[in-house]
Amino acid sequence: MQAIGETTMSSSEARAAILASVEKLRGAAQRAIRLVRDGAAAAGVLGPEGRTLCAAVEDHLDFERNLAPVALADVLGLEGMLLVQLDADHQRQRANVASTRAALEPAEATSARVGASVRALAEAILVELAREERFFEKADVDELSNDSPGG
């Protein structure tokens, strides 16, 4: 994969990079949910897992923010609307991260409270990732339409 600053990435390369980041974040969210479901995990285990998930979400959002305009460039007539929707989704995700971080802060936070907050963030992220994948799948279809002899 090409570095962003060195050469220009194609829209399909940008989508592939974002989708790889989506898969990595999905794995982190699924791990967090499994840990919360375990029930035996104490706040001392859930807290670090929650902080790791929060950092992973923020890393993904920062990464995606830089590549989204390129990745969605092939979406016929909708790229602007999709970027606005993606920005709104990112704002909601950042608010969810802030809420989870706040729940993790008190040293006396119960494992039930920490677990509920981490699980809520992880589940919300899984829903958001599925929505984002649809954005990028639409761009793949539009790119194929643009590039095909009949399109």
List keywords for this structure.
single chain, 151 residues, mainly alpha, disordered C terminus
Structural description of this entry:
This protein is mostly helical and 151 residues long. The protein has four helices and no strands. It has helices at 11-38, 43-71, 79-104, 111-147. α2 (43-71) runs parallel beside α4 and α3 packs antiparallel against α4. The longest helix is centred in the last third of the chain and has 37 residues, at 111-147. It is elongated. The two termini are 28 Å apart. Mean pLDDT is 83; it is low at 147-151.
Major pleated sheet: none
Low-confidence stretches: 147-151
Question: What is the straight-line distance between the termini?
Answer: 28 Å
**Which secondary-structure class do the elements indicate?**
mainly alpha
Q: Could you give the count of β-strands?
A: 0
In helices, the fraction of residues equals over 70%
Order of helices and strands: HHHH
How large is the share of residues in beta strands? under 5%
Name the overall outline. elongated
What is the overall pLDDT average? 83
Rg result? 18 Å
Number of helices: 4
Write the layout of secondary structure elements.
Elements: H1 11-38, H2 43-71, H3 79-104, H4 111-147
Helix pairs in contact: 1-2, 1-4, 2-3, 2-4, 3-4
Quick structural gist:
The protein has 151 residues and is mainly α. The protein is 79% helix and 0% strand.
